[in-house]
């Protein structure tokens, strides 16, 4: 992938190369820290770690730390912490969503069952906190605990709204702020702290990554309808089947006829596409410009993120963070 659109952009490969040594160390830390005295927790941790994943959040921690001038073992540990928190939320999320696949493989709940996965997720959360605790830094812990509560609130809000058709754009934004953008923002702030940044730079980097996270989730919700299953690693049209009314659909519903609204209600009620096939829904969203408007919103947050990161002094890391903004909206999974 390349980013020809902006003059100073660097490629995804180059971004990766800047942090690849550290990312390798992150994998080592996650591997070591995922060993429990009870084998099941270790096995589930290993299964998830080996299942792929873009490692976007650790990358954000590492690049932010390097941007601020320092990236040592502390930044590597914090990068491992955020990936472990991310993994724990995914284990719990797949239980909540009764998901069948994650990262192109059977999700952990389908292999070990709900009971075990709830506990394994708890164990992973606590292990992540224990790792963070070793820094003996209350500011870090404050951030991580607030963040985890935000993410749980996001999942709670999502649960309350499952199957409901009348979700407003404001409701949706409130949800993705908690469930996705809060973690992105925390990643950049943690990196900034480990990099020795002052409070102003930390807050600004947090704001950059918050916008990045919103753009990421907006794009994710478009991709849920438009991507190919093999690339996405989970079934297409999954969100609506799970009862989640996301932004492309919210926009389409603004102008939908009562008959079209009825089609969406049917899928929400049935939790499948048997009566109303997915292509019918896709056409409906497309016709009302739901995908286009969803992508435009994602682009607006990407632009905002780029304008914030452009304020930072030029360096390979700053340029990498500028280029990462384009990765949010120009991706296939
Ligand atoms: C999945 O995040 C959860 C969302 C916020 C949509 P990613 O798409 O970053 O998941 P992995 O880590 O690459 O699998
Ligand atoms: C993923 O949320 C978990 C969090 C972001 C906390 P979703 O349920 O929306 O995403 P997928 O589709 O399972 O990855
Ligand atoms: Mg889910
Ligand atoms: Mg979910």
Give the strand content. Answer: under 5%
Which small-molecule species are bound to the chains here?
3-methylbut-3-enyl trihydrogen diphosphate, magnesium ion
Number of strands: 2
Strand ordering within the main sheet: 1-2
Helix content: over 70%
Gross morphology is globular
Helix/strand/pairing category: mainly alpha
Radius of gyration from CA coordinates: 20 Å
Q: Give the topology string: H per helix, E per strand.
A: HHHHEEHHHHHHHHHHHH
Mean pLDDT: 93
Largest sheet: 2 strands, antiparallel
The number of distinct helices, counting runs of at least 4 residues, comes to: 16
Assembly type:
single chain
Q: Could you please describe the fold and organization of this structure?
A:
74% of the residues lie in helices and 1% in strands. It is globular, with a radius of gyration of 20 Å. It has helices at 12-33, 39-49, 56-67, 73-96, 108-112, 114-133, 138-161, 169-194, 199-226, 229-232, 238-241, 247-255, 258-270, 278-287, 290-309, 316-329, and strands at residues 101-102, 105-106. The model is unreliable at 1-7 (pLDDT under 50). A hairpin with a 2-residue loop joins strand 1 and strand 2 (105-106). The chain is an all-alpha fold and 333 residues long. The structure holds 3-methylbut-3-enyl trihydrogen diphosphate (IPE) (2 copies) and magnesium ion (2 copies). The site of one magnesium ion has 3 residues, from loops. One 3-methylbut-3-enyl trihydrogen diphosphate (IPE) binds at residues 53-54, 56, 103, 180, 217, 220.
Please summarize what this structure is:
The protein is mostly helical and 333 residues long. Helices cover 74% and strands 1% of the residues.
């Amino acid at each position: 992938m390349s980013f020809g659109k902006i003059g100073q952009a660097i490629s995804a490969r180059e971004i990766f190369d800047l942090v690849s040594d550290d990312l390798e160390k992150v994998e080592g830390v996650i591997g070591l820290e995922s060993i429990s005295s009870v084998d099941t927790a270790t096995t589930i941790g290993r299964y998830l770690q080996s299942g792929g994943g873009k490692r976007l959040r650790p990358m954000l921690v590492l690049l932010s730390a390097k941007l601020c001038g320092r990236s040592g073992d502390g930044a590597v540990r914090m990068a491992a912490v955020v990936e472990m928190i991310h993994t724990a939320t995914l284990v719990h999320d797949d239980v909540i969503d009764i998901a069948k696949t994650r990262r192109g493989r059977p999700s952990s709940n389908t292999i070990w069952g709900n009971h075990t996965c709830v506990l394994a997720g708890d164990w992973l959360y606590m292990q992540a906190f224990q790792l963070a605790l070793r820094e003996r830094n209350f500011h870090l812990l404050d951030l991580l605990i607030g963040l985890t509560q935000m993410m749980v609130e996001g999942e709670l809000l999502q649960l309350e709204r499952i199957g409901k058709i009348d979700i407003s754009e404001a409701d949706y934004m409130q949800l993705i702020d908690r469930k996705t953008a809060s973690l992105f923002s925390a990643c950049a702030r943690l990196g900034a702290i480990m990099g020795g940044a002052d409070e102003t730079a930390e807050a600004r980097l947090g704001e950059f990554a918050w916008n990045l996270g919103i753009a990421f989730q907006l794009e994710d919700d478009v991709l849920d309808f438009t991507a190919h299953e093999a690339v996405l690693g989970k079934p297409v049209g999954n969100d609506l089947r799970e009862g989640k009314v996301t932004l492309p659909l919210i926009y389409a519903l603004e102008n939908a006829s009562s008959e079209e609204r009825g089609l969406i209600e049917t899928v929400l009620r049935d939790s499948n596409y048997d009566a109303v096939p997915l292509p019918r829904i896709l056409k409906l969203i497309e016709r009302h410009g739901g995908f286009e408007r969803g992508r435009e919103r994602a682009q607006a947050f990407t632009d905002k993120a780029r304008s914030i990161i452009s304020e930072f002094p030029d360096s390979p890391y700053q340029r990498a963070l500028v280029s990462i903004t384009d990765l949010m909206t120009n991706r296939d999974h």
